[in-house]
Amino acid sequence: MGYLSTICILSCINITAVLGLAVLTGYTGLFSIGHAGFMAIGAYSSAVLFLELNLPFWLVVPLGGLAAGCSSVIIGYPAFRGLGKLRGDYFAIATLGFSETVRLLLNNTYPHFGGAYGLTGIPPLTSLPVAAGVAVLALLGAHNLMTSQHGKNCVAVGQDEVAAQMMGVNLFTTKLKALFISAAYAGVAGALFGFYMTYLSPGNFGIGLSSDLLAAVVFGGMQSLIGPAVTAFLLVAIPEFLRFLVEWRLIIYGILFVVVMVYRPQGLLGYRDLDFSRFWRAVHGLRGRG
Amino acid sequence: MDAPVLELKGLSVAFGGVRAVHGVDLTLARGELLGLIGPNGAGKSTLLNLISGAIAPTSGQILFNGRSIVGIAPDQLCHLGISRTFQNIRLFPRMTVFENVALGLHARPHYSLADAFFCTPRACRMDAAARERANGLLEQVGLEGLAGKRAGDLSYGLQRRLELVRAMATEPELLLLDEPAAGMNEDECEQLTRLIRRIHEEFHYGVILIEHHIKVVMELCRDSRIYVMNLGEILSSGSPRDIQSDPKVISAYLGEKRTSHGQTRRQLSRSR
Question: Is the ipTM of this complex over 0.90?
Answer without folding.
Answer: no
